[in-house]
Amino acid sequence: MLPSNLETAVLGVITTPVLHLADRHHVFAHLTAAGPARAEDIAQALRLDADTLERMLLLLTAHQILHRTPTGHYEVGPDVQPFLDPGDPHYIGGFLTHLVQETAPRTPALGAYLRHGKTAVDGPDARPFASLYRDEQSTRRFLTAMWDLSYAPSRELAALGDLTTSTHLIDVGGATGPFAVAALHHAPALEATVFDLPQVEPYLDETRKAHRLADRLHFTPGDFFTDELPEGDCIAFGYILSDWPDPTCAQLLRKAHRACRPHGHVLVMDRLFDDTRQGPLATSAMNLTMHLETQGRHRTAHEFTALLHDAGFTRCEVRESSGDKHLIVGYSD
After folding, report:
1. Beta carbons of 197 and 223 less than 8 angstroms apart
2. 331 - beta bridge partners?
3. Which letter does DSSP use for residue 88 in this model?
4. CATH code of the domain occupying 93-331
5. CA 1 – CA 262 distance, rounded (Å)
6. Do residues 297 and 239 make contact, with C-beta atoms less than 8 angstroms apart?
7. What is the pTM of this model?
8. Which regions of the chain carry the CATH code 3.40.50.150?
9. Rounded to a whole number, what is the distance in angstroms from the first to the last CA of the chain?
10. Residues 21 and 56 sit within 8 Å (Cβ to Cβ)
């Protein structure tokens, strides 16, 4: 028998697509709404094949994602239910879709990267986000994944970010505004501007309407490589710097220092490697996806604070959350 950690790694290639399919066909939503049910009853309600569905449910039960009662009824485990319930802020369905439809097809490139290096394979003019924004469907899918990954942890990070004394947040590369929305809910006197590519604006408009933030959530189109950042007293980078190599991050943080008003601060929100770089697992996994999908990597807290100091932020603090995404704060004075 394989050791459990090796078994999980080997069989994950089967489990992740099954988890995605069950979510896509509303199995978890049905169980959340209707309660425990047998496979044949779920299949009838959702118009699915009962045999195929039960085999999928048995796999998810073995992974302790579902629980199967002695009477053959399946139910979602309480520890995972928030992440599989489309009505919960912790829902990860969009991220699962991104992993299966965008990340997984790229993994064969690792072989070429391993032999020749990423730059040699992709070429010097690679545009890592071009495929993610290639059409309306891909753009929406990517932005949905980013919201699903970011909104729930953003609510805790906003509370750690010294926002109650700030007046104007600039959310750099803020996409559909998961952090901006969390910040505005946390600090009622705050206004926020998302600075992102022009094609993101219609999707931010949807967020603004859905959260009734028309007078407080704004959008400025631009490219943070070629444009200066809008001015504010809090400049936020939510999972942006891990997309780019150190020289690019240094350039962006220098722009943030120029845009930051006196006595303001910058927020860097990201997954962190521990000092030994032996984990956490999620950071190590996403560090590899950064290699596939972007030009960046994940860093330790010390590496981030070094970049902030070099950009002119004189005092830096690391504030750990209860999750796997944390906050590094740099003060301009």
Report:
1. yes
2. 265, 315
3. S
4. 3.40.50.150
5. 61
6. no
7. 0.89
8. 93-331
9. 58
10. yes
For residue 225, the SS3 value is: coil
Tell me the residue length of the chain: 333
Domain 4-84 adopts which CATH fold? Arc Repressor Mutant, subunit A (1.10.10)
Phi-psi label, residue 212: left if phi above 0, alpha if psi -120 to 50, beta otherwise? left
Structure tokens at 258: 């120029």
From 97, 78, 85, select the one nearest 30 (Cα to Cα). 85
DSSP H/E element including 139: helix 136-159
Among the residue ranges 62-66, 134-138, 209-213, 233-237, the one predicted with the least confidence is 134-138
Please give the DSSP secondary-structure letter assigned to residue 240: -
Give me the pLDDT at residue 150, please: 92
Edge to edge, the sheet with strand 315-319 lists 217-221, 191-196, 168-172, 232-238, 260-270, 326-331, 315-319
- Say which residues have a Cβ less than 8 Å from residue 143's Cβ, sequence separation at least 6: 175, 176, 200, 203
Instruction: For residue range 152-178, list pLDDT tens digits in order.
Output: 999 999 999 989 889 999 999 999 999
State the Cα–Cα distance between residues 256 and 266, nearest whole angstrom: 7
